[in-house]
Amino acid sequence: MNTKEDNIVKIAKALSDKTRIRILKEIAGKGSISCKDAEKVVGLSQPTVSHHLKVLADAGLLNTVKEGRHVIMSVNKKTLKVFNLMITDSIKGK
Length: 94
What we know:
Layout: H1 4-14, H2 18-30, E1 33-34, H3 35-42, H4 46-58, E2 62-67, E3 70-75, H5 77-92
Antiparallel strand pairs: 1-3, 2-3
Helix pairs in contact: 1-5, 3-4
């Protein structure tokens, strides 16, 4: 069973990498991108980018939709909002 603290840690770990932050910012700016587009943004190999995308998706930070052979990703704004609330509540001692 995941606690509130477990969720905070999982999301914080996903956000603790500069490459993942760059990818997330790019997706937020464009609304959605494909995995191939994410490779171009960071200039890293496909396996490395796939790993970063998986970490973001596993933390609930990305929505993914399969369109044919492509996966299209968008930012899960609900997760970011909940994360913000969890951090705020944690600081306030709730």
